[in-house]
Amino acid sequence: MVVDFYFHQYFGKKGLEFIDNYESPYYCSDPNVTEKTVGSEYVYDSNNIRINTRTDMMQYAATAIKAIDAPIQLEKIIFVIHHSEFNHNCPNETLVFYEDGCVVKTTERTRDFMDRIFKHAGPSYSKMREIAKQVNGHSGHSCPYVQGKIAFMPIAGPMKKDVSWISLSHLLEYREHPNDNGYTRLEFFSRNFLDLQVRVKTFEKRMAPAVQLYAAQHRRLMDATHQFDVDIVRRDTRSTKTVMHKQMLEMPKKPLLNEIALAEKLVRVTYKEWKNDNPQLKDCPYLEELDKLFFT
After folding, report:
1. Is the dihedral of CA 195, 245, 207, 139 positive or negative?
2. Rounded to whole angstroms, what are the CA distances from 273 to 35, 55, 146, 268?
3. Pairing outcome for strands 150-154 and 145-147
4. Cα 173 vs. chain centroid, distance in angstroms?
5. Which of 144, 199, 217, 240 can bridge 210 by disulfide, Cβ–Cβ 3.0-4.6 Å?
């Protein structure tokens, strides 16, 4: 694999805050083009992220920008890697891959970094699990996080552990690996690739709850615009190119959510989070009464 790391070094000299306002010259001119649609005319750029093996991951880790906290750029992050899943001998570290080719390495735990993403995006992960229960009937072992076009899915394992996540908002397509049917090849915007050691059918099964969450939110938006006779002006056509959006269009319509029941459950989750964040409340004489108010 030939990789040009000058881009990474350039960011390293400028400092992490530079990522926030910098438009990379390495963005593809046509980020929606995929290997499958173009075929033999497909052009690979040396700055595209291509991870086919554990060795590739180690190369990116070795040259990544070191930071205490990786920048939260929700619309630029394509995947967040818990490095120990790919290299058992490496320190417990997190690798954050951005669409424009930048890679940041941090000792911040993967679950802590994802918690920061969720707080920035809106609902906490606990609230998202409650929403998933209402939409899908259960939250599942590896519940995704979907808040509009901000969508992340754990590759494997529960959120309470350090696991790797991919951005479904950047995923253009997935398919069986051309050389190994035990792997799935993921292709993201701007011709970035990640090969996962998971079968395509297993990946589809894990992705289904995310599509259902996205579809429920999208339908609520469509219903609201119809009720108020408002037209939607789409600012970003990229979101219609993702696998998640395309699969949503193919899904049969489900009954609308019981929003009152969902709101009640989210209030209870908020109350639980408030209690967990304030351990001194255990000495409050009114705590028992509050518990009865929220849970009876």
Report:
1. positive
2. 45, 41, 20, 9
3. antiparallel
4. 15
5. 144
Tokens found for residue 154: 């754990």
Roughly how many angstroms between the first and final C-alpha of the chain, as a whole number?
60
| Cα 281 from chain centroid (whole Å) | 34
Between vectors from CA 29 to CA 24 and to CA 30, what angle results, nearest 5°?
Answer: 125
Structure tokens that stand for 136 in this block: 């899908």
Count CB neighbours of 125 within 10 A. Answer: 17
Distance CA 209, CA 138 (A): 9
Residue 50: helix, strand or coil by DSSP? strand
Token code pair at residue 115: 């918690």
pTM exceeds 0.85: no
Contact (CB, 8 A) for 134 and 257: yes
- For 22, 43, 102, 121, the CA distances from 28, given in Å and listed in that order, are 15, 10, 14, 26
165's tokens: 């996540």
The tens digit of pLDDT for each residue in 25-71 reads 444 556 666 666 666 665 655 667 888 888 888 888 888 888 887 88
Tell me the residue length of the chain: 296
In the sheet where 103-106 sits, what is the strand order?
A: 65-67, 103-106, 94-98, 77-82, 165-167, 150-154, 145-147
Nearest CA-CA partner of 152 in 190, 206, 189: 206
Q: Are 172 and 239 in contact (CB under 8 A)?
A: no
Between helix 259-277 and helix 125-136 the angle, nearest 10°, is 150
Q: State the Cα–Cα distance between residues 165 and 161, nearest whole angstrom.
A: 12
Rounded to whole angstroms, the Cα distance separating 296 from 294 reads 6
Measured CA angle at 3 (ends 169, 103), to 5 deg: 45
How many other CB atoms are found less than 10 A from the CB of residue 226? 9
pLDDT, tens digit (0-9, with 9 covering 90-100), for 231-289: 766 666 788 889 998 888 887 766 555 666 666 777 777 788 888 888 888 888 888 88
Nearest to 108 by CA among 71, 149, 138: 71
